[in-house]
Write a structure and sequence with these properties.
222 residues, mainly alpha
């Protein structure tokens, strides 16, 4: 029995809205980054969950190609609203995409980041650490850049999801962790100058610089 044109158009609209869902996931990930409020965000919690969903939404169409290998036909969209025969569905897809891009990402996200900067000032005034709010603001301001980075890692194959995750890991280890290690070392120097505990920060800095070697060591021990 052939699938109706309306059902095919609905499936196409949902798949074409997947990139917008990925952008929204990145925005929620930035908010979760502040809500977790500590330095365990890189290990688990809402930030990691929403980053994972952003990758899944971005690579949803290549991921669905697995069903074809299982013998299940999946009607993939042509990549533009022009392939949707139902006019109001095509307009709906265009309107939602423009709303996410123009309203949420370009207008609301910078304002939200500004509020997080204010929150950082209030955190410092109340004796709390301002770093979580600052990190959340920086992440939100870089939402489009992060999205473009994820897109550049998308290979478009059936393994696109894991390819993006693996590339993110390499980017984290090769780019972000060395910068974090330097900042941690600066914090250790400041703690030493003010006669506060600093050896833990030195150990963390060394661990961040050698995390790739630690991972290879763990693999060799398995």
């Amino acid at each position: 029995m052939a699938t109706s044109q309306l059902l095919n158009d609905i499936i196409s609209v949902l798949l074409l809205l997947a990139p917008s869902a990925a952008l929204l996931s990145l925005v929620v990930a930035g908010v979760s980054l502040r809500r977790e409020g500590n330095m365990t965000f890189a290990i688990g919690g809402g930030f990691t969950k929403w980053m994972f969903w952003a990758v899944v939404f971005l690579t949803l169409q290549p991921l669905l190609s697995w069903f074809a290998s299982f013998g299940v036909a999946v009607p993939l969209p042509s990549g533009s609203p022009g392939g949707i025969a139902t006019g109001w569905l095509a307009n709906f897809q265009t309107d939602v995409t423009q709303f996410v891009t123009n309203f949420v990402v370009q207008r609301m996200v910078p304002t939200l980041a500004a509020f997080f900067v204010l929150r950082a000032v209030l955190d410092a005034a109340s004796g709390q650490h301002p770093l979580p709010s600052i990190l959340a603001a920086m992440f939100l301001l870089g939402t489009e850049t992060t999205y473009s980075l994820l897109q550049s890692y998308n290979t478009g194959t059936r393994y696109a999801t894991v390819d993006v995750l693996e590339s993110l890991w390499n980017h984290l280890v090769g780019t972000i962790m060395p910068i974090t290690a330097v900042l941690t070392l600066v914090g250790a120097i400041l703690n030493f100058a003010t006669r506060k505990p600093f050896l833990r920060l030195v150990a963390v800095s060394l661990a961040l610089l050698t995390v790739s070697a630690i991972w290879k060591l763990v693999n060799s021990m398995m």
